[in-house]
Each structure stands twice: as structure tokens, then as C-alpha cells.
Amino acid sequence: KILVIGALGQLGTELTAALRKQHGSHAVIAADRHTQDTVQGPYVQLDVLNFGALADLVRREKVTQIYLLAAMLSASGEQNIHAAWELNMQGLIHVLKIAAAQRLDKVFWPSSIAVFGPGSPKHLCPQDTFIQPNTIYGISKRSGEYWCNYYFEKHGVDVRSLRYPGLISHSTPPGGGTTDYAVDIFYKALDGQTFRCFLKEDTCLPMMYMPDAVRATLELMEAPKEQVRVRTSYNLAAMSFSPCDLAAAIRERLPAFDIQYEPDYRQAIADSWPASIQDASARQDWGWKPGYDLNAMVTEMLQQLQERRQTPAPPVQ
Ligand code: VAH
Asked: Looking at the annotation, which residues are catalytic?
């Protein structure tokens, strides 16, 4: 059975659905710390920081794979540095310990382009380069990469990881990320509201539409073990854009869309990250190839959100 921890989050929601489509609903247990409300299919309320409860669940349900998606993202992490470190690090250490002790087949754990800091190359930032994150979220993700590599080398745990760019999806509302302006903007555009963007208009960041991120995850997890050469975490790229690029693409469909730029503390986080990523290792090792560019994403995001809201928003042109 597959256990998805953090199944109610932005990535967890989508990966749970994709894994259930691939393996059948009964084969995938969704777990999160919230009480069950909206989730169909097997669900358990679980705090990944409760080692005993997690170890018992894995044993009782005969779990063979864990996807650990519970984490506090960059912006909220800077507001709660100790809680972010505790959740992001201790959660991973619990999962790795259990994966070794109960000999799980595979583990997936998400890293992020947030591992790169101001000293890393700004453009086409490579897989191996100077890495010195200056957010607690980035520090926890870089540290987690070392833990994954250690457990692979010392304990033979087949743990695999991707350095996701900012992820954009329509299934869950924005959740504390610095790139989440690129999710919230769609809701405001369809509400006909002026969007107050917390980043400067020319802040170019690596981004990816969620269907690409889900496919990359499944392709990595299905790759033959010997092809997975990188056991810290793979750079992964699809596109890069700035708030004004995204606003222009939305305005092509919704001409009345209005945006104001009001940078806040998240600007410094965004400025510390690369503007674009080079993902040659992912392409060479397991054949990564992105599918969505900015236009394809904007078209689909607006259509999906409009369908869900059934609001008579101005027609998407
Ligand atoms: C964040 N969405 O903003 C996440 C991601 C690269 C950004 O790690 O924190």
C-alpha cells in the first residue's frame, strides 16, 4: 500500500488522486493532521511528528511506499522558523527511520529550488553548484537532501526527490509559499478584483503547472533504481516567468484584469532564488520533459476555475 502524508496539501491532493488513478483507491492511504472532511477513499488523521503512531500505521496497513508531502513552505516558514524546522526535518527523519526499519520499497520526498541562495547562479542554475539557502525552509530542504542521500547510502533506502519550482494548481487554495501569488492571482482575476501582488512585477521565478509536477514525480518513482543517479534531489524545470508576464497572459483572456504591485517580506525570499533552473540530469537519467508553458497553463487554470465556480465571469477570450 502507498501512504501519502500531507495528502490535503497542494501537492498531496494531486499526488493522492494520481496515485489512486494508477493503483486503485484502496491501495492509497491519504493521511493528514486535519480531521477528515472532503477526502474520498481511505483516510487517516496523522501527525507525522508522532513517530509511534506513524510506525504502527505503516506496520498495520502493510505500507510499502511513503510519499512525504507534509511541510511548511518558505513564507510561513520564515514566520515560524522553529515549527518549520521541526515539521520539515523531524517529519522526514521519522519517515526515513521507519523506511529503513520496516524495509519499505520506496520513499518520495519533495525538495525545492529554495535550496539555492543568493550565491547560486541566477540563470540556468545547475544541479551541482554553490548552495547556501538563507530561508529556514531552504535550509530544511537542503538538510533533508543530505539525510535522503545518507539513508540511501548507509541503509539502502530507495528514497527519491525532486527540487520543485513554484507549483501552480487549481485544486487547493494558496498555502504559504512565496510563489503562491501565481495561484491567488487566478482567483482574484475571476472575481474581477484588483490583484495586490506581494512581489515586484519583474521578479522572474522558476514555475511549473501541477500536472507536469505530478507526471515528473510518477516518472521518477517508476524509473529503474539504477537510473536514479542523484540521491540528494533532482533539479526540475518547466518555465520561468514574472508577475507582469503572468498578468499580461491573464489580461489576454480577461482584458479588465487589474494588478497592483505591493512587495512585502516575501520579495527578499524571491530575490534569493534563481530565476531559472537547468535540469539536464533529470532529462538524461529518467527522460524528463515538461509539457506546459505559460500560455497553456493560463488557459487551463482559467477554464478549470471557471467551470468549478460556474460564475458568469467575463468570457475567457
Ligand atoms: C514556496 N511553493 O514558495 C514553494 C516552493 C520554490 C517555491 O518551494 O515556498
From this structure: 137
> Can you read off the three cell numbers belonging to residue 54?
506513524
Closest-CA residue, ligand 1 atom 8, reads: 112
How far apart are alpha carbons 64 and 106 in whole angstroms? 7
Tell me the per-residue pLDDT of 61-95, one tens digit each, with 9 for 90 and over.
999 999 999 999 999 999 999 999 999 999 999 99
- Which cell numbers in the block locate residue 240? 520561468
pTM exceeds 0.90, yes or no:
yes
* Ligand 1 pocket at CB < 6 A: 73-74, 112-114, 137, 165-167, 177-179
DSSP string spanning 151-177?
A: HHHHH---EEEEEE-EEE-SSS---S-
**CA–centroid distance, residue 175 to ligand 1 (Å):** 9
Which residue lies with its CA nearest to atom 3 of ligand 1?
Answer: 177
**Helices (DSSP H) in the chain: which residue ranges?**
10-23, 51-60, 74-79, 81-85, 91-101, 136-155, 181-191, 210-222, 243-253, 266-271, 280-286, 294-309
What would the pLDDT profile of 182-197 be if each residue is shown by its tens digit? 999 999 999 999 999 9
What does the DSSP 8-state code read for residue 277? B
69 HSE (CA, 13 A, CB side): 24
Report which of 217, 88, 229, 125 is spatially closest to residue 164, judged by C-alpha positions: 217
